[in-house]
Amino acid sequence: MQKLILLFSFLLISTGALAQADTSAFAKFNDFNNAVLNGGIKKAEAQKQFESLLKYISFREKVRNEGILPKGNWVFPLKGYKSNAIGGSHGNGYFDKGYRYLDGNKHGAHPAHDIFINDKNQDCMDDHTGKPVDVVSVDDGWVVACTNQWEPHSNMRGGKFIWIYHPASNVFTYYAHNNQIFVIPGEQVKQGQKIAEVGRTGYNAYKKRSPTHLHFSEFKLVDDIPVPFNPYEQLKKAKTL
Ligand SMILES: [Zn+2]
């Protein structure tokens, strides 16, 4: 009996500790991402921190969702839109040469696709529906970093952005320039779940010459650092919600 009580209290304590560690791991990840963006962290240190945070987060997913496999196809990240809304021709707006995650806010590349909505007067409302356009998660995952704060004078390029980690396929997706975001770090999201509304936040996206769009990227882990690759084919095959 005593043994049973001991075991029970051990279980209680350990699950409590896990729950606490969870929140702090995601909060740390978010702080870390902000530090990278602001250039407030040395690269060697950043790499070390990234590795340990990532190990923790993927461990958490394994514990909770043992046996879950990646879904075959994505859903398109903008509700009611499909791949013909992607800027450039045949996805040529994507170029990742010179981009490094650890360089933060300073880089010259565009490792992303800009997906444009119908918004002639730039009020962030769809001209056809008169409503905001929903940004949805392309697959199941965990929100690992995001910010819901951005001021028009800020030089931060992503504006109100979201990073989602998809443990089953071991990739990240990134959604930038949102008007409003509806998730927080540590939140689990399902494929197709609304995470934000399309907006014009971010240093360049805010300017009048920029039509309203979602800036969307996908990153694979190479040597434990996110490296962008072109998600054009996945976007083309994605199902429209
Ligand atoms: Zn862009």
From TrEMBL:
List, alphabetically, the SUPFAM superfamilies matched.
Duplicated hybrid motif
Residues covered by the M23ase beta-sheet core domain = 130-217
Q: Which InterPro entries match?
A: Cell_wall_metabolism_enzyme (IPR050570), Dup_hybrid_motif (IPR011055), M23ase_b-sheet_dom (IPR016047)
Q: Annotated Gene Ontology MF terms? A: metalloendopeptidase activity
Q: Which UniProt keywords apply?
A: Signal
Determine if Zinc is one of this entry's keywords: no
Superkingdom of the source? Bacteria
In the record, which residues are listed under signal peptide?
1-19
Is Signal among this UniProt entry's keywords?
A: yes
Q: What is this protein called?
A: Peptidase family M23
Q: What is the protein's species of origin?
A: Mucilaginibacter gossypiicola
